[in-house]
């Protein structure tokens, strides 16, 4: 007896067909992604905007308003020193971490003496290096 190709295909599909996946309890997408949720009218929905009281430093990793203002000031200062925008943002972000750790080291780019090419100590200005300096004078942009 000969079997044509349609019967052969049906037989193959019948053998390889898997059992359906059992139904599991549904998990909201926000629970999977770890996004904070807000309760509204008895329903939980993912929050698109974080809560500044709980998501900002020191309660969370986000920048608070004071840190954002300081970071913008530093980026402006670094750009005045002819540092590119991406590098200025990287350095300013690094200084935010320094401030959070209460580190007493400074960068020459932050110093009033940093406008020249040499430090009053007689050393060339090290670019982007955190160090302790007795002659540091904080500058304002």
List keywords for this structure.
141 residues, 5 helices, two-stranded antiparallel sheet, elongated, 38% helix, mainly alpha
Give the strand order, joined by hyphens, for the main sheet: 1-2
Average pLDDT works out at 74
Strand tally is 2
Biggest sheet record: 2 strands, antiparallel
Pick out the low-confidence regions: 37-45
Task: Name the quaternary structure.
Answer: single chain
Rg of Cα set: 30 Å
Structural class: mainly alpha
Order of helices and strands: HHEEHHH
- Taken from the alpha-carbon principal axes, the silhouette is elongated
Note the beta-strand portion.
Answer: 5-15%
Measured between the Cα atoms of the first and last residue, the distance is 93 Å
């Amino acid at each position: 007896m000969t079997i044509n190709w349609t019967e052969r295909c049906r037989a193959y599909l019948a053998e390889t067909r898997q059992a359906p996946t059992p139904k599991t309890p549904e998990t909201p997408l926000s629970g999977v992604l770890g996004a904070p949720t807000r309760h509204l009218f008895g329903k939980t929905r993912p929050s698109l905007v974080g809560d500044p009281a709980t998501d900002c430093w020191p309660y969370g990793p986000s920048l608070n308003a004071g840190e954002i203002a300081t970071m913008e000031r530093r980026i402006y200062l670094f750009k005045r020193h002819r540092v590119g925008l991406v590098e200025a943002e990287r350095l300013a972000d690094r200084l935010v971490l320094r401030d959070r750790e209460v580190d007493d080291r400074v960068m020459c780019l932050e110093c009033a003496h940093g406008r020249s090419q040499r430090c009053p100590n007689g050393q060339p200005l090290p670019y982007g290096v955190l160090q302790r300096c007795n002659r540091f004078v904080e500058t304002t942009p």
